[in-house]
Automatic annotation (TrEMBL):
It comes from Anaeramoeba flamelloides. Keywords: Signal. It comes from the Eukaryota. The keyword Signal applies. Residues 1-20 form the signal peptide. Belongs to the histidine acid phosphatase family. This is Lysophosphatidic acid phosphatase type 6. The keyword Signal applies. InterPro entries: His_Pase_clade-2, His_PPase_superfam, Histidine_acid_phosphatase.
Length: 383
């Protein structure tokens, strides 16, 4: 009897907490799913076949419900593309598409069913999608959305926008076009005594990898791309280069993570990489708080090169290569007149240094974020 009473108290407490902390807005920054390589390993002999087709549809009448009369498919000419086979460079694979769909359905379970935050039927006013202008991220956004709101068969065909910027204006990646200074800073970091000492300490590993892959100028960045390349191969049952042991794969992972943290996660670099995006994010929060922003959910699909600085900006990067379909989620809560932000990375809640709790007072969060936004981006980016 006493136990039941205790449970009732716990349940009542839970509801009183749940009702005072009201979720207002969610922003999810997500890496695309599994893909094929961008570059092939020289003399590697692996052929990459892609099953996911994308059909081009040219909608000349600009109708809201296009009914295409003719579709066009891309077909590579024999031996005229970098990657042997019929995939585009870096193309999202079926595995990648599924990863994003299941991430979308995880969000469906959490934000629609568990928390009742988003409506069960799609309300286009609540959801806003943004992606970098690459086929793999665009497609990742679409697949996430399919998981969040599965398509119903008999529904009228609608056109849902995925907002984007051209690559040269994009602020969700390491953009040296918009910020030439980034390239200089990166080189500076790679010439720093700490970087050089580290590379010296793994000289033998570099020699081993060089023997297998035949790279010139092997550096930390290569370890990250080679580690990714190993992952594609494992995901797709492709043979690994001969001589590459499990121990070396583990070392690639560690060294790739070290590079990501030391170079991509350098605070000076981070500000100029992801600072402008952080401003976009603060704008979304502020306009939500002021009542101008009707959206409840923003999806941003991007790359490793955005996830690392985003986490590093909050002192939350774990020095491990970022997995496909990884997510950094910002949740904005209201509690009476106060607002709070909670940050999580792949479901792990993160305590932002400088905040008292994992649920960070918005005014505090905003101050911490503003420190990572350049005061004068153009000037700081000039060389
Ligand atoms: C690529 O080749 C595979 C195997 O031959 C085939 O199943 C697939 O449809 C092709 N994909 C494209 C996009 O042509
Ligand atoms: C980050 O890079 C800048 C520019 O090269 C350098 O001055 C600074 O020491 C680096 N920060 C760390 C923590 O290594
Ligand atoms: C790889 O092999 C496993 C085990 O045989 C199989 O289940 C899986 O579907 C294969 N994956 C691909 C992409 O062919």
């Amino acid at each position: 009897m006493k136990q039941i009473a205790n449970w009732i108290i716990i349940i009542l407490l839970f509801f009183s907490i749940a009702s005072t902390h009201k979720l207002k807005f969610v922003g999810a920054f997500v890496r695309h799913g599994d893909r094929v390589p961008n570059k092939n390993i020289p003399k590697d002999g692996t052929i990459w076949q892609c099953k996911l087709n994308s059909l081009e549809m040219y909608n000349n009448d600009n109708l809201p419900s296009p009914t295409p009369s003719r579709l066009f498919g891309k077909k590579f000419m024999q031996d005229r593309n970098t990657l042997p086979g019929n995939c585009s460079r870096g193309q999202l694979t079926e595995i990648g598409a599924k990863q994003l769909q299941s991430l979308g359905s995880k969000f469906r379970n959490k934000y629609i069913y568990d928390l009742n935050f988003l409506p069960q039927e799609l309300d286009p006013d609540f959801i806003w999608l943004r992606s970098t202008d690459k086929p793999r991220t665009m497609r990742s956004a679409a697949n996430f959305f399919l998981g969040l709101y599965p398509q119903k068969d008999n529904r009228k065909q609608d056109v849902f926008p995925i907002h984007t910027m051209d690559w040269n204006n994009e602020n969700m990646h390491f953009n040296t076009k918009m910020c030439p200074k980034l390239a200089i800073l990166k080189n500076q970091i790679k010439r720093s005594p700490k970087y050089i000492t580290h590379m010296k300490s793994i000289e033998y590993f570099i020699y081993q990898i060089d023997k297998i892959y035949g790279f010139i100028d092997l550096d930390g960045y290569n370890f990250l791309t080679l580690y990714n390349n190993v992952k594609f191969r494992i995901n797709h049952n492709k043979t690994l280069p001969s001589g590459l042991s499990d121990k070396m794969i583990e070392k690639l992972k560690i060294e790739g993570g070290w590079y990501a943290n030391f170079v991509m996660g350098n605070k000076t670099l981070v500000k100029l990489t992801i600072g402008p995006f952080l401003q976009d994010l603060l704008n979304a929060f502020d306009s939500k708080i002021s009542g101008e922003n009707p959206h409840k959910f923003h999806l941003y699909t991007a790359h490793n090169s955005g996830i690392v600085p985003l986490l590093a900006a909050y002192g939350a990067f774990d020095s491990r290569p970022v997995d496909f379909a990884s997510s950094v989620v910002f949740e904005l809560f209201q509690e009476k007149k106060k607002y709070y932000v909670r940050l999580s990375y792949n479901d792990r809640k993160i305590k932002i240094p400088g905040c008292k709790k994992k649920k960070c007072l918005y005014t505090k969060f905003k101050k911490i974020t503003q420190k990572m936004i350049p005061k004068n981006y153009e000037k700081e980016c000039r060389i």
